[in-house]
Amino acid sequence: MTISIHGIGVGRGVAIGRAVVIASSRSDVGHYFIEPEQVEAEIARVHEARDSVVQEIQLLLATMPKEMPGELAALLEVHMMLLQDDEIFSGVRYWIADRLYNAGWALSTQFERLARQFDDMEDPYLRERKLDLEQVIERIIKRIQGQQTLLAVQENGRHEGGEANLLGEDAMDVPLVLVAHDLSPSDMLQFRQSVFKGFVTDVGGKTSHTAIVARSMGIPAVVGARTASQLVRQDDWIVIDGDAGVMLVNPSTITLDEYRFRQRQDALDRSRLLRLVNTPAVTLDGEKIELLANIELPKDTEAALAAGAVGVGLFRSEFLFMGRKQHLPGEEEQYQAYVRALEGMRGLPLTIRTIDVGADKPLNDSVPDAAHLNPALGMRAIRWSLAEPAMFLTQLRAILRAAAQGRIHVLIPMLAHVSEIRQTLQMLDMARSQLDARGVAYGQVDLGAMIEVPAAALTARLFLKYFDFLSIGTNDLIQYTLAIDRADESVAHLYDPMHPAVLQLLADTIRAAREAGKPVSVCGEMAGDTAFTKLLLGLGLRSFSMHPAQILAVKQEIVRSDTGKLVDWAQSVLQSEDPAAAMAQKP
After folding, report:
1. How far is CA 80 from CA 53, 94, 142, 242, in A?
2. Angle, to 10 degrees, between the axis of helix 86-97 and the axis of helix 39-63?
3. What angle do the packed helices 389-403 and 331-344 form, to 10 degrees?
4. Model confidence, pTM
5. For residue range 544-565, what is the model confidence (pLDDT) as tens digits?
6. How high is the pLDDT of residue 333?
7. Are β-strands 246-249 and 237-241 bridged in parallel, bridged antiparallel, or unpaired?
8. I need a labelling partner for 494 at 20 to 30 A (CA). Which of 157, 173, 383, 393 fits?
9. 181, 171, 19, 29: which is closest to 101 by C-alpha?
């Protein structure tokens, strides 16, 4: 039976494949693919962990006090039987050998398959044995991860290291789609160049970090699908319609053929866009438009150049820090990363945003900050950096040193107060003084401010006294202007880039920068959304920064536009009570 699950489409296009389900109950299990030559070693890890658990239970049975109830011994015997069940471990071997799943993932997947068989049993006693199976599987997984029991530690005398949650490439030929309760930024970083053709999450809004990365990856995705990870079973056939925000589970053959036709059409459209790679981004009336790339890691520069970007408008440096727990990258490691990005851009400018963590981008945890009632309004971005001066100075020194090797701009996120601006300038001066004292060479940098909160947009002219350029982060600007948590699917329908207040703040910031003769760009989602390209051009924007996958589509809109004809139309949209309706009246 086909099931249709609705959510919010955040990555355009169609994906078709077998479901890989990562339920929230076992989200701590590492999910990554192994190389074919690692199969036997991974299977051996499972058997070693199983044998270790068998030894633990045997020792418990042998040393159990006589006063212990017989039911406890019987329960342990059931666990022993399950540990020696060939069906369980032949299935685990299949997931490892045929699908190239890592050991923990294979065990978790096999449990989910067998759990459904237990659920279908009529005998209540047999149904309850699912809990025994779950306990056995979890014991094995914990041993693989190095989370041993006290008894095991005493027996072995040491802890074993856990596994890294990494995802390999080229794992198999069968198309796969990911279905999960949620994906953290660190998860997305690991999945970003994976074999997955698309993904669906239970939670998330249109501009949650998960959604942003989905669009940047250029893959179909649906977020806010509520109970998708509970309704979908491992290996179900899935269609993800990122345009409609719909996931179809086990669709009919006719439906599959229709969506495969759409996939072919999308591929044809993308191939046509490739013809624009070497075409200058110039409007019909001769206005030169700067198309920059947003990147997350130094190696992303290759995609930026391939898409025809003329520089990097946003290097999200926080991705160098995420998932590092207490081992944050030092000055030398950061310096090397920034230099690699510079070299990758082959002399084109590189804009590095200082670390921007907090709210939906936690530094170490797999879930957003739950310690505060409103983490989006709390310690994040520049506030966090100024509260951690040693870390901030380390990053600034690394950036300044890299600037000696090429053209680097520094972008400061989430500024709102003049006091924050002055503190930031003082920290930059201190970083230079520290490098001078060490006799280390460094270069000059242009300094920019991100306009992300209404306070900054309303005082843009004040900001321009201190900064060389401005960059408008529309995602947060919309969030803070409308008081909408962009990661909360329950209020996602209220998130509106076309709200008159949002458009007015955008227009005023662009106008202020142009009047001051200083560059201004948009680096938020609006920059890469072709629905807003003409409007931004009409408001006077001449610099767009977006993920490389979005550059060619935006360029196509630009080369077809006449900015002279867009100005009056953009003003009519700006002054309308219903900007969305006014937008529909094309110039």
Report:
1. 9, 22, 17, 46
2. 150
3. 40
4. 0.69
5. 999 898 999 999 999 999 999 9
6. 95
7. antiparallel
8. 383
9. 171
Asked whether the CA dihedral 248, 252, 258, 260 is positive or negative, the reply is: positive
Beta-sheet strand order (sheet of 221-223): 3-6, 246-249, 237-241, 14-22, 176-180, 196-201, 221-223, 8-11
Contact 66, 76 (CB under 8 A): no
Q: What's the token pair of residue 251?
A: 């669709």
Check the CA dihedral 556-562-568-571 and report its sign.
positive
User: φ and ψ at 555, to 5 degrees?
Assistant: -60, -40
| Spatial separation of the C-alpha atoms in residues 206 and 196, rounded to whole Å | 20
User: For 170-262, where are the E strands, in sequence order?
Assistant: 176-180, 196-201, 221-223, 237-241, 246-249
| Secondary structure of 49-68 in HEC code, one letter for each residue | HHHHHHHHHHHHHHHCCCCC
Q: At what angle do helices 39-63 and 124-145 cross, to 10 degrees?
A: 110
| Distances in whole angstroms, Cα of residue 506 to Cα of each of 47, 192, 294, 522 | 60, 31, 20, 9
Which residues partner with 222 through β-bridges? 9, 200
Q: Which residue out of 79, 181, 209, 547 is catalytically annotated? A: 209
105-154 pLDDT, tens digit each: 899 888 888 888 877 776 665 666 776 787 788 788 878 877 443 233 23
Cα(222)–Cα(492) distance, integer angstroms? 13
Q: What is the SS3 string spanning 529-574?
A: CHHHHHHHHHCCCCEEEECHHHHHHHHHHHHCCCHHHHHHHHHHHH
Q: Which residues contact 239 (CB under 8 A, 6 or more apart)?
A: 14, 15, 16, 247, 248, 251, 255, 256, 259
Which element (helix H / strand E) includes 86?
helix 86-97
**What sign results for the dihedral spanned by CA atoms 321, 324, 325, 328?**
negative
Closest CA to 548 of 337, 302, 339: 302
Does residue 146 sit in helix, strand or coil? coil
Which of 102-116, 289-303, 496-510 comes out lowest in average pLDDT?
A: 102-116
CA separation for the pair 546, 314 (Å, rounded): 8
3-state secondary structure 105-131: HHHHHHHHHHHHHHHCCCCHHHHHHHH
Q: Do the beta carbons of residue 430 and residue 479 sit within 8 Å?
A: no
Residue 523 bears catalytic tag: yes
Structure tokens belonging to residue 107:
């065990």
**Distance from C-alpha of 352 to C-alpha of 331, rounded to nearest angstrom:** 15
Beta strand pairing status for 8-11 and 221-223? antiparallel
